[in-house]
UniProtKB/TrEMBL annotation:
Name of the molecule in the record: CehA/McbA family metallohydrolase
Superkingdom of the organism of origin: Bacteria
Domain Polymerase/histidinol phosphatase N-terminal: start-end pairs: 121-183
Organism in which the protein naturally occurs: Paenibacillus spongiae
InterPro entries the record matches: PHP_domain (IPR052018), Pol/His_phosphatase_N (IPR003141), Pol/histidinol_Pase-like (IPR016195)
Amino acid sequence: MELIIKREIGQHEEESYIEVPFEMPAGVERIHVSFVAEPYGVAGRVVNLGIRDAQRMRGWSGGARTEFYMGTEKATPGYLPGPLTPGTWAVLLNPRKIGENECSVILTLRFEMESPRWLKGELHAHTVHSDGAHTMREVERMALEAGLDFLALTDHNTVSQNFAYPKDSELVFIPGVELTTRFGHCNFYGVEQPGDYFLTTSFDQAKAYIRTARERGAKISLNHPHCRNCGWLWDFDVDHDWVEIWNGPWRGDNERTLAWWHEQLAAGRKLVAVGGSDFHRAQPDVKHGMPTNWVYAESKTVQGILEAVDRGRLYMSYAPEGPQLSMCAGGWMMGDTVSADAVEEGIDLVMSCHGLQACDSIKLLTERGVEREWIVETGCETMELVVLMEDRLFYRAEIHRFFAEAGQTQLVLACNPIYIR
């Protein structure tokens, strides 16, 4: 949405503060404001710029800028991010010098609306704030070069990274920390300081940290729980939201967690699966977004992304350029629960797959195991598969591919289920 407003400024208005009111629509994720003053090229003319919402000033850049943006989480320096509440706002103009004649200020307001979209990103990465080899700016550059939209900061047993990330980045940085103990690791997302004391030598101490993090609003994921070197050796009944079934390159440890996760689903549990590269330093097979979390979020914000993950609206692909998948049944999608009545009346499960290669194997799984399998033919990069849903607990999909350089077939995509009530 775009709004253009023209405001004539006379000589008598020099040194005054002029409010140019506008209505902030509902559902705005980010606003961009710019202006030009006509006639052009008047020497020494200065028009200062700012903005207010219905309650307070939200920013002022004086004559230093002719444009700025504000979002719910980020803004141009000099402006405050925060809620873009619907109502009457005003752009503030302060003409210091306009010349001998009046001038026209033409404001352009562009509203970027909240709207569901697929975002891809990283949920497990480290920096120089713990044992990673790269600075925040280096991590930002690599993530953006990979085409990622978001990156979670999960340095070991510290929170300094959550206060040091580049605030002017187009990348959404998700605050986090990896609680790292001798008996297992888990990630906390969404709060800058999930706990105060990370030194845990007992399960009771670990649970106390987890309890504090929960009280502060953190989302909790168990990391690489079946890793032979640093798996989860404590009780699985510990409070958590998600489980990392895919850590770094696909390997046997991930296979064991995938099998465990499937058992949980088959037992009737709803548990969100996530992936993470566990990036520490650049290597040929360890890069940001390997695997990539594709998240169907309502907004490109920390809150929007974490809410989408928590709803299970997520699938994992082995790399940013890997295969893509959408899976829906009527108005439901992955992470949602289809009513049993809809299944009884007859409803199709529709899977749209993209970025396929010849001989890829697409598997549709339920609690009964693999129910359908399709082998991709040469030249068939996109497939739409339709299956009549039956009385099951859930449906989920996997895609497998043979890699000649590895000499084996590996998982290249896994999605969270569509459940049936």
